[in-house]
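Tip: read the tokens left to right.
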């Protein structure tokens, strides 16, 4: 497992009562293309809510940050999620422990998955709570992986088949670091990933099962891709768009399947809202399929399937969960900033 050294300078606080808790709020929206700074966030002490019958009070144990959160900091977005509200706590995937659950089927100590991260305690309707099976995955934090999205891209978007040559763009991210492994499970013969640094490229090859890696910013992506996949590409899991998607189409074999599962090139653009020029003639003449896939819109049934696959793979060593884990709610803004800056491999988690 690839895990960055933990930062323990801000250890979680020990609480002896539930009178108040802390949450992180958005104080201002970043200017287009501007880096994230601590001034955009504030940590506020607020009363801890009391659950009514049918509600759960959940103590957050671990939360995740993702590139889409940078997009949600803007006032408007094309992402099918509501933007963060100024003066209100941010939200995001988290695993928590039930503290109180009056009139519900839950008991104190149960683990649940919720979308109210960025706060120490969350109040949730029991009907919306997703119980976490602590025995399914060796580490409950692995429920916060982006593996379901990777599995969707591999199985339904790109329809990876035995013997395929597969290209994964943004292969060192939360989705890409698992997509290459998932492609192997489907019988891929040769798996290529792209990365933004030599360090990450080495990790792809040495730890995450990739056969070859190409480097963003080190010359033509298309030329690099042709060099490491001289027989062409059969399946693509694209997390980036832009030049990498264009190169995928140029190198794709007849009948290739390209799954669009992310748009990091747009989400993390330094300025403006870039678009990708698509060679539709190549799509037509070579019968290439270009398919956008959204997990929570169309493929929710894959989530339990992935968890069972993931749990078995983690236990027998055929899969790993690449991630970085920072400690303390205070470090959540830093975690998002470092993710946007590309400092980590895999998922980025914050343990409270």
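Filled-in amino acids:
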């Amino acid at each position: 497992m690839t895990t960055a050294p933990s930062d323990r300078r801000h250890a979680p606080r020990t609480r002896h009562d539930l009178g108040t808790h802390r949450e992180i709020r958005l104080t201002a929206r970043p200017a287009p293309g501007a880096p994230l700074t601590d001034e955009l966030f504030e940590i506020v002490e607020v009363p801890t809510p009391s659950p009514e019958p049918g509600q759960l009070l959940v103590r957050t144990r671990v939360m995740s940050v993702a590139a889409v959160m940078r997009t949600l900091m803007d006032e408007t977005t094309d992402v099918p999620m509501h933007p963060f509200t100024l003066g209100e706590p941010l939200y995001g995937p988290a695993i928590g422990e039930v503290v109180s659950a009056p009139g519900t089927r839950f008991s104190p100590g149960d683990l649940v998955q919720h979308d109210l991260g960025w706060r120490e305690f969350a109040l949730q309707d029991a009907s919306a709570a997703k119980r976490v099976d602590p025995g399914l995955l060796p580490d409950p934090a692995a429920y916060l992986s982006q593996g379901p999205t990777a599995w969707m891209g591999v199985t339904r978007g790109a329809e990876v088949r035995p013997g395929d040559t597969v290209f994964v763009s943004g292969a060192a991210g939360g989705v890409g670091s698992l997509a290459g492994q998932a492609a192997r499970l489907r019988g891929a013969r040769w798996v290529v990933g792209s990365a933004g640094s030599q360090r990450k490229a080495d990790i792809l090859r040495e730890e995450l099962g990739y056969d070859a890696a190409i480097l963003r910013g080190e010359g033509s992506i298309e030329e690099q891709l042709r060099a490491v996949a001289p027989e062409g590409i059969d399946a693509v899991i694209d997390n980036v768009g832009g030049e990498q998607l264009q190169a995928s189409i140029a190198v794709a074999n007849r009948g290739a399947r390209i799954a669009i599962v992310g748009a990091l090139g747009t989400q993390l653009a330094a300025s403006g809202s870039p678009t990708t020029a698509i060679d539709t003639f190549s799509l037509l003449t070579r019968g290439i399929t270009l398919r956008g896939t959204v997990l929570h819109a169309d493929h929710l049934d894959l989530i339990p399937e992935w968890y069972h696959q993931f749990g078995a793979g983690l236990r027998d060593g055929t899969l790993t969960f690449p991630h970085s884990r920072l400690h303390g709610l205070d470090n959540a803004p830093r975690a998002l900033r470092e993710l946007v800056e590309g400092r980590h491999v895999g998922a980025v988690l914050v343990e409270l």
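The first strand starts at residue 20 and ends at 26. The radius of gyration is 21 Å.
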